[in-house]
Please model this.
Amino acid sequence: MIPPQKFKELLNEESGVIIDVRTKGEYQNGHIKKTDYNYDLSSANFEQNLQKLDKGKNYFLYCRSGARSGRATQIMKRNGFENVYNIGGIQSLVSAGFEKE
Model:
């Protein structure tokens, strides 16, 4: 897991895709404003959704605490994604200054 400050640095250096791996209900209750996708790790479609993504891009995954995004990071790496980062939980990101909506 990378800390929020490192995530900010990486986003400033190069672009990336931000994915919330929480449930749709959790996502609707609030998510990081810059989030590109909500792919629920516990849904049967999670790995199918990955097939739509460009493996050459950078991916930043978060959830509530960092546990699910850690598992999702490993799944993506097993599926051929190289630049995948677990950026932890939403609350630590909000506390670090990321805007929530």
Summary: Helices lie at 4-13, 24-28, 46-50, 67-78, 90-95. The CA atoms of residues 59 and 84 lie 5 Å apart. The chain has a mean pLDDT of 96.
